[in-house]
User: Which sequence fits this backbone?
């Protein structure tokens, strides 16, 4: 089912479900109560669930890359240890590094694929699993979302800070670092920019919560911020964030993609907008190459 075939009311319910405001049962119960053009909205609700079998652009067996799981220390984090999915391009390196941060449900197949895509583009990519200290991504998003909610958020963010420093200092890294993320990972990209200062060279958050305004003066990275047009919760923060970036002379770009919804880059659900996602990807890769060269 394509995006244009799904009613706005169902998208709104799915947004509540994705962000943990209602559970899976409530999502389907409320969808079942909706009627669109005389037809139950249940099929629309079912179509919005991710299909990770289709969310692969680069196979882990691709000869252009090498993917491995790595463990590393994470002082001050959830458990003091972290695990991530490290993907390197073929060749000896060194390579500029990119941290790829997941949504609010752990390191699912979509985010691992994004890391592989970065490696094909010539970056050393690390996708940390914030759930690693409590068993790792469980294989389905519902359980992953429940697990992530149980974590101390300050410690989880510290795990991301430590992950950034790990990949930046990796033997295969040039020492130049970018970060990106989606939804929760987008907000955490903004957070990392305030925490890492000049340790971060570029950031590209996708539809994530803005950095705290009083922390924006600490941003030294160049920022490329991506927004969906139909995303009231996140977009409510945009004007204040833009003003703060300007006031503090941060190098930045902001892009809004017409007609798109929160999650438009995620190619495992009908929220995916191919044209916008591909444009955003090209912009981000070019931006990272410019600022990590």
Assistant:
């Amino acid at each position: 089912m394509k995006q244009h075939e799904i009613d706005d009311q169902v998208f709104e319910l799915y947004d509540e479900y994705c962000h943990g405001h209602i559970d899976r049962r409530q999502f389907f119960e409320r969808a079942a109560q909706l009627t669109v053009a005389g037809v139950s909205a249940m099929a629309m609700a079912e179509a919005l669930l991710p299909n990770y079998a289709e969310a692969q652009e680069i196979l882990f067996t691709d000869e252009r890359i090498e993917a491995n799981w790595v463990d590393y220390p994470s002082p001050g984090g959830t458990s003091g240890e972290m695990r991530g999915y490290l993907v390197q391009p073929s060749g000896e390196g060194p390579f500029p590094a990119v941290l790829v941060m997941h949504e609010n449900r752990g390191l699912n197949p979509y985010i691992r694929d994004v890391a592989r895509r970065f490696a094909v583009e010539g970056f050393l990519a690390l996708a940390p699993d914030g759930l690693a200290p409590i068993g790792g991504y469980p294989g389905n998003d519902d359980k992953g979302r429940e697990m992530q909610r149980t974590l101390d958020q300050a410690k989880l963010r510290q795990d991301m800070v430590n992950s950034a420093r790990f990949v930046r200092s990796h033997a295969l890294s040039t020492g130049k670092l970018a970060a990106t993320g989606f939804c929760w990972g987008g907000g955490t990209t903004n957070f990392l920019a305030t925490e890492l200062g000049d340790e971060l060279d570029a950031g590209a958050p996708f539809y994530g919560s803005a950095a705290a305004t009083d922390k924006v003066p600490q941003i030294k990275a160049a920022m490329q911020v991506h927004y969906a047009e139909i995303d009231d919760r996140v977009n409510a923060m945009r004007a204040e964030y833009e003003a703060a970036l300007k006031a503090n002379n941060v190098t930045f770009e902001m892009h809004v993609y017409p007609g798109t919804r929160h999650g438009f880059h995620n190619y495992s659900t009908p929220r995916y907008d191919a044209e916008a996602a591909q444009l955003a990807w090209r912009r981000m890769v070019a931006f990272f190459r410019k600022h990590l060269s």
Observations:
- The radius of gyration is 18 Å.
